Every structure is written in C-alpha cells, then in structure tokens.
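Final report, section 2: Outcomes. Of the targets proposed, F5/8 type C domain-containing protein is the one most frequently requested by collaborating groups, and we therefore present its record in full.
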Amino acid sequence: MKKTLIYTLGLAALSLGLSSCEEDYQAIEYPEAVSSIPAPISNIVSTSLPGQIALNWDLPESTDYYYMQVSYFDHLMEKEVVRVASSYADSMLIDNTRAKFGEYEFRFQTFSLANVGSEITTVTAVSEKAPATVTISSSKVNLTADQLSTNNQEPSEGPIANLVDGDAGSFFHTRWSSPQIPMPQYIQVDLAEPIQAFQFYFQNRAWSQVGAEIVEIQISNDGENWETLTTIDGGLPSGGGAEYTSEIFEPENSFTFFRYNVLQTYGSRNYFNMAEFALFDVDIQTYDPEL
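The predicted structure is given below as tokens.
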C-alpha cells in the first residue's frame, strides 16, 4: 500500500490577533487501484456536424478511472484547449469548429483519483461547414404621387395618388366605367434611385373590394423592357381591408421601375382597386464563418 502524507494546519481561536498554531500530520492510504495507471477509454467515434464535432466513446470497465481530459487546438481562439469529462460521461460536443481548418486532433487521457494519467489516445475528426448568418433589414421607400402611374385610371374616382396618402379609407380604382379594357392592368412605380432586394405591401379597399387574384411582379431599368420575377397565383387576400406583405425578392440586378401587373381579379372583373401600397428596400447581409 502507498502512503501519502497530508498536511493540516489548525488555527486556535483569536481574541486580539494570532496567538498560536499547531501542526497535525496524518497518513492516508490510497488503494493500489486508485494510485495505479487507469485504463484508457476505447471505441472513440467522431461525428461531423455543422460547426460542431460530436465525440462518443466507451467507458473502461475498471474502477480506477476518475476523470478524463480532452485536449485539442482551437483554431478560432488560436490556442490549446483542455476539456474535462467525468468518469460517467461518454460523449462531448465540441462547438465553434470549422470545415476550413481541416482535421482536428483530439487527445484523450484518463486520470485516477490520485491524478495518475493513462496513456494518451489520439483521434482526428473534421467538422461540417458552420452555417452562415443572414441579417435582414428593410426601409420603406418614400413614394410620392408623381412616381405612380397606371394604364387604366378610373376618371371619376380613386386617383392613383391615394395609394400613398396614408389613409386606408381612400382608394385607387382602375376604370370601371365605359369603355372598359381587359386585363392586364397595372400599378407602376418610377423609383428615384435604383434598389435591388425588395418586398412590397398593400391593403385592400375597405368596401366594394375587387382585388387581384393573379398578378405578375415585374421590374425594369428603362420602363420599356420588363423582367417578370414571379407570378403570384395564390394567397392574395380578397377581403375588404385585408393586408398583404410579399416575400423578399432578390433579383440579380438593381432596377428603377416596378410593376404590379394584374392578370386576373377575384370575380374576373375588368378592373381592380386598392387602398394603400408601399415598397421596401431590403438590405441582406450574409456572414459566412467559413470564408
């Protein structure tokens, strides 16, 4: 049996200051199993995850295993890192790893209660790519009436300027009086400066609502040649006063003209109306931790 000397310092009660002290020594005996070299862990398996590496292992059957250290080089922190696992743990998740750094080398070493270490077991593993982070912000484009136009204004009511007056009780109306023209009919926006990523919003007229059921979203840089980004043929609201916010569109190029081009209305009328309309300039920032 191995004997280890433990030093204990006893302190007497003090009234005005330190009066006396005494030393007490006692011997504690560790079993050989505690002070011997512990068995290493086995069957270490690594799993590549996005921005992480999962490590799993089998615990040794011997009872001399008290804790384990897992050491590796952290490329982001640029230093050696040591993680500690208890004798009951059989897994560890390594966060903030990157595929771009290639292989990580992990060193496993078990320790006994007497802090005697086993032989070191080394495994290598790789991480999947860490996911990119996308930050999205938007700002409302300040539209004025002279930036709006249509190919079928109703002459008796509902001027297109009402779309940007901030009053949901007013409305824009295409021509319902004779002579009517068939669809398509559009709302066009001439932008003061180019935008690229965007989304749009509108609110239906509160009463006597006739809204678009199928609409093309188009952009242009000259007002003559139009690119159709998408055709929306489902999900547009039909109820009075209903609101709609589109998905975010990310065209390859910026543009200076926008069209909301109605192909078909609910009820298949030859006109439509709308209370409010807005465009939003969208800023999309992407951080790729693998670059």
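Residues 2-33 form one domain.
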